[in-house]
Please model this.
Amino acid sequence: MKKLGLLFLAMVMLCACQKPENATVKNTESKNTDVPKQSQPTSPQLDKGVGPIKEVKLDPIDKKLAKTGKLIFEGKCMACHKLDKKFSGPPLGGIAGKKTPEYIMNFILNPEGMTKDNLSGQALLEQYLTAMPNLQLKTDDARAILEYLRTTK
Ligand code: HEC
Model:
């Protein structure tokens, strides 16, 4: 019994000795990688943004859907966005070739979150100094706009 107790004590001490060592290793690790508060891909090709849209599967362009999207875009977005030049907001022509479909739809459906919790959105807000409003669009509307934007250059 006594021997077992000693063994136990020895094991506890061993563990106690090892712990700080492990902790130091972990500390230097997190210092070295310097993980930002919200770890996000910095490449626009990977950045899906933040919001309700997690995954969009793209098929060849659906012309009818793109036409619907164009109408919504003209009614709701062109007050601030041009296709080919900066306006109140950034130019959006050809954006579907530069940013992910998820990012684009999340910007439409969750502009507050995108300018608060997404690095690219934060930078845009800093640059344009206007906050894009949430236009309360339905997911289907945002999807149609995305289809239209895919047809633009
Ligand atoms: C009142 C002006 C305004 C309206 C209306 C508006 N936006 Fe924006 N949008 C902005 C601004 C300003 C930004 C830059 C981010 C910010 O400051 O909020 C932006 C950013 C974006 C971005 C990100 C662009 C990039 O380069 O990453 C997308 C996509 C976008 N808007 C799409 C739309 C769509 C689609 C609509 C219509 C449904 C729309 N916006 C309506 C002002 C507006």
Q: What stands out?
A: The two ends are 81 Å apart (CA to CA). Residues 76-77, 79-81, 88-90, 92, 95, 99, 104, 107-108, 111, 115, 120, 124-125, 128, 130-133, 135, 137, 145 surround heme C (CB under 6 Å). Residues 22 and 89 are 49 Å apart (CA to CA).
